[in-house]
Each structure stands twice: as C-alpha cells, then as structure tokens.
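Notebook entry, cofactor series.
This is the third protein in the set we're modelling with a bound small molecule. For this one the ligand is 2-acetamido-2-deoxy-beta-D-glucopyranose. I'm keeping the input format identical across the series so the outputs can be compared line by line later. Sequence and SMILES below, as received.
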Amino acid sequence: MTIALFVSVLAALSCLDQASASSLLARHDNDNTHPSNGVCSDFTVTETVTSKNWGFAPAKFKNNFDVAMFLENLARKPTPPFVPLVPPKEVTTKEYTVSATFCVPKKTNGKEGTILVATSGLGYDGRYWASTYKPEEYSFVGHALDAGYSVFYYDRIGTGKSQKESGYVNQSTNQGAFLSKIVKGIRAGNWTGKVQAKKIILVGHSFGSYTSNALIAAEPDLVDGAVLTGLGYPNATDAANAATPWVPTAFAARIPSHSRLDTGYLAFGDIYAHTETFFHPPYSIPTIEYAQSISQPFAIVELISLRTLQLSAPAFKGKVLVTTGEFDFLVCGGECKSTYAANGANQVFSGAEVVETYLHPGAGHGINFAANATGFYNVITSFLDRNF
Ligand SMILES: *[C@@H]1O[C@H](CO)[C@@H](O)[C@H](O)[C@H]1NC(C)=O
Ligand SMILES: *[C@@H]1O[C@H](CO)[C@@H](O)[C@H](O)[C@H]1NC(C)=O
Ligand SMILES: *[C@@H]1O[C@H](CO)[C@@H](O)[C@H](O)[C@H]1NC(C)=O
Ligand SMILES: CC(=O)N[C@H]1CO[C@H](CO)[C@@H](O)[C@@H]1O
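Returned structure with ligand:
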C-alpha cells in the first residue's frame, strides 16, 4: 500500500503528567451539547489505575523528521526487525481524571438500566459518539437514547477535556484499566443517578474496541455484552497481526494546536489523510470537515501498544456484535468481506453465547460519520433489543 504521509509534530512542550482535575474544563459547551432526547449529566471521573505499561524503545521525537523515520521503520519489511516497544518492567500505579457524560433517555421504555459504555478510537474523543453536526444523522448517543438505552461516554485519557499524559507512556494498558474502573463505578451507581445498572455493554470504536476486547479477555465477568465497531481480526490467534494493517496507514501527524501535549502525540496530517484512512467515497465533505474539526491527537504508544493486547476471550460468556464498514482501510486493508469470512470473532469469543458480525455497506473505518450511519445504529440497537 502506498500512503502519502504528511508528517509533522509539535515542538517539545512541557511535560503534562501533572495536569490536575481543577484544570479540566467543564465538559458541557457548544461543542459538547447534550443530545436533546436525553437527560444528561457531566462528570469528572478520578480513578487510580494499576497497569503494566510498555516503554517506548526509540529516542523521543525531536522533530518531524524523527516521526517520518519512525513511521518508515514501522511500515518497512522487517529485516532487520524494528522493535518499538520495551516490555513492562514493573507495575505502574497512577491516578487519572477524565471527563465523562451520562445520559438517560427522556422517554424511558424500561431499557434504561441497560447502560452502554462507549470508548472512542484514536483520532477522536467522546464526541465521536455524540455528533453535534446533524445529530439526527450522526449521533450514536441520540439514536441509542431513542431506542431506550442509557449511555456513558467519555474522553479517553489524553483527549478532549480529560487529563493529558505523555504520548510515550503506554496507553492501551492504562486505558483498559481505567475503563475497568468506569464499569465498576457504574455498577456501584456512582454516576448514574436514579438508574441502577441491570446490564452493562461495552461499546467501542477501533482502539476503543480493541481495549474493550482486551478488558473482556482479562475480566470475562465484568460486562454482559459488547458492541465492537471499527475492528477486525486479520489473525485471531495473534494480536500483533491484528495491528499490522495500522502500520502502512500510520496516521500522518500535524502540529496540534493543543498545548500540554508532548512530542509523543501525533494527529491526522490533514483532512485528506483522515479521509483516506477513515472514509470511503462517495464522501460527504461537510461531514468529513466536521469530523476533522473535532479530531484529536493520539499517543504514539497508544497506536503501537495495540500490538501487545491479548484479545482472545474464551471465558467470556456474554453476547457480542463485531462490526465495521465494508471498506474499512485500517482493519481490513480496504476490503472487509474476506477478513470477516475468516471468522476471527468466533475464535476470539469462542465461549460467548452470541457472536454476531455485520459489515455496513459502503462505509470505511469511521462509520459514525458515514452515509446511512442511522442504518448502522439500527443494526446495533436491533442487536441490543434481541439480546438484552
Ligand atoms: C464508587 O463510589 C464509592 C463511594 O464513594 C467509592 O468508595 C468507590 O471507590 C467508587 N467506585 C469506583 C469504581 O469509582
Ligand atoms: C497467526 O499468527 C501466528 C503467529 O504469527 C501464526 O503462527 C499463524 O499461522 C497465523 N494464523 C493465521 C490464520 O494466519
Ligand atoms: C442503511 O443501512 C441499513 C442497515 O444495513 C439498510 O437496511 C438500509 O437499506 C440502508 N439504507 C440505505 C439508504 O442504504
Ligand atoms: C508510566 C510509565 O510506564 N512510563 C514509562 C514509559 O516508558 C518509558 C520508556 O521505557 C519509561 O521510562 C517510563 O517509566
């Protein structure tokens, strides 16, 4: 695959590990308008997580040429092998604060005790789930509320209004550990007001799906089900291979206007790099422009630590929907029918009561901003209606 890389990265800024909860902005603003059909509350969620974090092996990026060389190394033929990560030496315990929103449907139908916990993928924060641009066409949260489900969505560590972390600190493990705490807090009723969780369903996109999957593998009794979007299993027996298609597509980086992020953060080089990796023609250009406007930098170690996740979850007895767009470039190399035909989902979730798969016609990786996103959401809520 030939990919044009438009690579740049911000100059080194001060370390941001120490961003405090008080420096976080209120979540609710024009960009984060709550869905009109929900009763929503914003929270900052502070949890201490323990995770085994992999280290970043190369020198930290000094400039964009370092990033270019790194991406070339990731994508090239592996002779000699390129080893970007060093195995965890110790367990890291650290407190993080993230910005979150919980919504209950205005019109309840008895299903509000089924709580969807949505984690976004690389390149986005929680707004991936709750588009304020044509919400009737693109807001997953709005759609789920219409169907009667409650939704908890949040900005991953390092994105949106959540606490920043060095881009060189592994984040698939600490993000997974944080998600585990969120689920436990929801079970305990910590942020859900009068709603008591009867069922909890993890909903993910891309990186958020892989971390949700890895969490289910590690804690098979934690949740009742999962809707994993924007993922595929090119090699269900080898998590490293699942990450391989990311390599040649390595997101180009641009200079984020965000302060408090170090050089370990990369972002879509420009709207065309974003389009190439996330969307498929015919394009809705205004929709892509909105998606670009809310896009977020991601940590280099988030991307490469995807390879280290243990996805196989034979002990999970729940119900899972695995889905992406028919033309997903990132997880299927642009053609998902043959990828899904290999039945990876059934191998990963070999003990699950229900494993369903679905490919959304015409869509790429960023399905929530694809044509007929509501058709995609109907498939998800139909899966939920039938199974929970
Ligand atoms: C939930 O709230 C209780 C009471 O404040 C607290 O002890 C517990 O740690 C919280 N659980 C989580 C996972 O946040
Ligand atoms: C998956 O990857 C492993 C390890 O690289 C390899 O041994 C195995 O043959 C692969 N399986 C498939 C179905 O490609
Ligand atoms: C939208 O997607 C749904 C679900 O796959 C499908 O049934 C419907 O025909 C699609 N609508 C259009 C206009 O493509
Ligand atoms: C929090 C954490 O695990 N940080 C580690 C990230 O990786 C670097 C490089 O290996 C380590 O020095 C950090 O301790």
